[in-house]
Design a protein that fits this description.
There is one protein chain. The chain is an all-alpha fold. The chain has one domain. It is 69% helix and 0% strand. The chain contains ten helices and no strands. α1 runs parallel beside α5, α2 crosses α4 and α5 packs antiparallel against α6. The protein starts with 7 loop residues before the first helix and ends in a 9-residue tail after the last helix.
Amino acid sequence: MPEIETGVLGLILTAVLGYLMGSVPFGVLVTRVMGLGDLRNIGSGNIGATNVLRTGNKGAALATLLLDGGKGALAVLIARACTGEDAAQLAGGAAFIGHLFPVWLGFKGGKGVATFLGILLALAWPVGIAACLTWFVTALVSRISSLSALVAAALAAVWAGFLGYPQITWLSLILATLVFYRHRPNIERLLARTEPKIGQK
C-alpha cells in the first residue's frame, strides 16, 4: 500500500467521485443509443462487454469494453494528478465498486473485468498489460470469457510483485476477490462445463 499523504476530506471526495465515475453503466447506455434494447433483458443480463457481444454487435461490445476500462483508468489518473498515489488507488477501488454496485441501476451492476484492467493499466501499466495478455491468452485457448477474467484477476497480484509494483498488490488482491465473488454463477457453470463460449448467444 502507498503511504497515506492525502487528507481525510481529500480522500472522501476522491472516493465519492471515483464511485460516481465507475457507476456510469456504459453497456446499458451504448446498447440503448445503438437501438439494441435494454441490455439487462439480453443474454445473461450483465451490463458488461461480453453480454453486449451477445447482441451480435461487435462495435457496441468494443465501445463498452473501452468505456468501462476507461472510466476506471480515468478515475485513477485524475486522482493521481490532483492529489497523490494513495488517492489514485482509492479512486480506482471506488470506481470498481461503482461499476459493481451502481447507484443508477439499483446497485445491480457488472462483474468489473474491463474496469479492473483499466485500473491496473493506469496504476502500473506493465501490470495492466500483463493482466490483459493473461486474459487474451486464456481466451484464445479456452474461448471462455469468464475463465479468462478469473485467471487474469488471480494473477494480477502475482504480476504486481514480479514486475516490481508491490504497492498495488493489496488492491489487486481485493479487486480480484470481488471479481471472483461476482463470478460465482460462472464458476458453477465452469465446474459443470456448461459455461457459454465467447460470442455464443
